[in-house]
Amino acid sequence: MAKILGVGNLVLDTILTLDHYPKEDDEVRAQSRQFRFGGNTANTLYVLSQLGHESAIASTLATDEQAKHLKKAIQDQGISTEHIQRFIKGATPTSYIFVSKHTGSRSITHYRDLPELGFEHFAKIEVEAYDWLHFEGRNMDALPGMLNIAKTFLDRQPISLEIEKARDGIEALFSSANLLLFSHHYAKQKGYQDAESLLKEAHKAAPQANLVCTWGDRGAWCLSASGELHHEPAQPIKQLVDTLGAGDTFNAAIIHHLLAGANLKQAVHQASLLAARKCQQFGLDNLLQPLASRKPIANIKHISSSKATVVPAPGRSHKVVLIKYDDQIKAYENNCPHQDVPLDEAYKIDINPFEMTMKCSVHDAYFRIDDGVCIEGPCWRDELKPVDIEIDSDTGGIYLAE
Fold first, then answer.
1. Weakest mean pLDDT among 38-42, 195-199, 242-246
2. CATH class of 3-279
3. Mean pLDDT, rounded, of the chain
């Protein structure tokens, strides 16, 4: 296990899953809504935590209500927040993400009204206590100084730099890292038509670094510091479900395997496998577990709006609560956020058909059926964790989404 420090943004993702993307001036109904922490570095650290590493994030947080939930969410996933910089002014950065169930692709709109991590704050971190430092290629006002500190105080620990977008002055920093992770978006912005030409040009500016560039379904290319070029074809995917976070998963896996002693070619191969695994499930949870078996957990004909049905969920740590709401089936983990106990721990889950709420049987917390938000009780404004499900229109079988 290694200690890894990631430097980048921490974002609240609002994820709406749709049957298909709406046309302009169209109106559609989302099948589910989820709130998760996001940001490239945060996602990468979460995957690294699942791979057994001790992760910490250096980022900024606001002081609004969303920031409190964001901090708790990332701590719950084993990521240290001791290097967080707080700002009174500004709001929690949010990404609004539309996921198409038809294609598995996503469209993202970002909103940011919060300062980036300050150089002075970063300078107080004992970076030499970490085995690897990973930086997002953004925050160009402070990033050059932060990389300079890292190079000054580190004698053996690698530094990785993710270059997702073209930013003024980013190329001057290539010589500060041991691993450069390029996206095809950056390559296209800079006028490159393929990954190979980008990597060969970048090698001139950073001959000391291992270089990697991903290019969607065309696979990934890597160029080692010794000059060895390799193309890793994209892994076959049985069913494309959700591409959000696939790149962050890929980056985490490369770091993990390089730390384990693999060469660059081996690390890229293993990273491609894990990224493909991620594309076949919603979210980043349980990435190392096998895909859920396609056995129904219930049938729609047994689910009503007047009672909550609790069913086992193979491969998950909690059972699932199913209840009908309008023309949808809502699914939540059977776990009250107040004290992490099942909603039906003491007795059945009470349903109020007029208020459209579910009540936890232990401490009388009331949750809206529509979105799982607690509107009364000891965990007010906390939320039940939604569970992604699929319904077979022919049989009525309800499945855990893969």
1. 242-246
2. alpha beta
3. 91
